[in-house]
């Protein structure tokens, strides 16, 4: 069975996912077979495996760092919030239903057999498992029913590395306070502390590090510097949303819907030199972009209402009336149709008028579509006519079905061909997530926009996957230098 080690954090967004990915890469570089594991993940960014099962993107990223194919065994429970008090519950890649927070907490311990089955299967096939916690282990109101932090560490008998983000301030209090709130048996499982995202002269930090070690009796096994790496983010705490667009020939605005999901679709575009990509949430922020993108959402109907009430729908329609480009992906594509109906209550229930830019209707069903696809564009129009013939690949994950003048692209799903998406003028929509990840498609898309501005085409661009592989090596190199890896290996060998 594999030797486990677990990364927990004092807060959400403390850097757990990236540190776990770095350890996966380091162990792989050192010749070990390694896999990530997170028993329960709450995020709207998800992924469809080759088997058509759904899992969180953080463990996909970590699997890529480990050099292995993603598997739902790495994330047996995924919670996708549908509103402030409820989530869609996905177990083993399959939807179990939508539950209120109270109902889920009342039943979640019954999922421990599912968690252990996934964990033990992974453990049998690898030398090392890198586990990731969620939020903080010091959430004392939740500890009695915990299955993802110390509760999971106990099930796996995993030593714990506890990290905190110094960029947020109060790092010593955060680490000390978290340790102090743990039960004695839990405290004994914490074998190392990590200060993450440090900028500046480390020698100034050293006296505080020594005092922290004396107070907790736990060694600080590393101070990880702030690093510029470009990898997929897990959730809506991403710093991407707050970034201003860089100076570039093209300005692309992505609408930051309240329940935005799979915004990782646009990371491949963001890194291109010709593209300034920014997230906007009001008409005042829209400006005069070269293209607007409506992304995926966990609740198409409610987010369309928000789009309408915020004034962004009117601003986007005005943009299109002037010949501006508009793209909808998954939920964003559904918004572009004439009518959205939900007779079974899969989302909000009832029906709502769509934006009417693509002539078709979307009907929600209880069953979710989950499949990986390849495709070729064949029905692009207007400034996007140059996309015709461009190949892409990605995955579908949606509750609705859209009918109408379908034919933006020809897809291959599970060996069978079928049409996808619609196009009208310089507006198109598709159900395919990850459509921009292949370099050739991203280049064709950007070239269409550049040509519309009378500018020359771009140089060749790498596939997003090739680019990410280099980013994992950069991440691993920086973390390896910052951590006491000899001590990490001793912790791994000694266990708890």
UniProtKB/TrEMBL annotation:
Which residue range or ranges hold the CobB/CobQ-like glutamine amidotransferase domain?
A: 251-440
Please name the GO terms of the biological process aspect recorded for this protein, alphabetically. Answer: cobalamin biosynthetic process
Q: Which residues constitute the catalytic centre?
A: 330 (nucleophile), 433
Q: Where are the transmembrane segments?
A: none
Q: Which InterPro entries match?
A: Class_I_gatase-like, CobQ/CobB/MinD/ParA_Nub-bd_dom, CobQ_GATase1, CobQ_N, CobQ_synth, GATase_3, P-loop_NTPase
Tell me the domain of life. Answer: Bacteria
Is the keyword Lyase in the record? Answer: no
Could you tell me which pathway this protein works in? Cofactor biosynthesis; adenosylcobalamin biosynthesis
- Protein's UniProt keywords contain Chloroplast: no
- List, for all copies, the residue spans of the domain called CobQ/CobB/MinD/ParA nucleotide binding: 5-226
Which UniProt keywords are present, listed alphabetically? Cobalamin biosynthesis, Glutamine amidotransferase
Q: Which GO terms of the molecular function aspect are on file?
A: ABC-type vitamin B12 transporter activity; catalytic activity
Q: Belongs to which family?
A: Belongs to the CobB/CobQ family. CobQ subfamily.
Instruction: Summarize the protein's role.
Output: Catalyzes amidations at positions B, D, E, and G on adenosylcobyrinic A,C-diamide. NH(2) groups are provided by glutamine, and one molecule of ATP is hydrogenolyzed for each amidation.
Name of the featured protein: Cobyric acid synthase
Supply the source organism for this entry.
Answer: Candidatus Avoscillospira stercorigallinarum
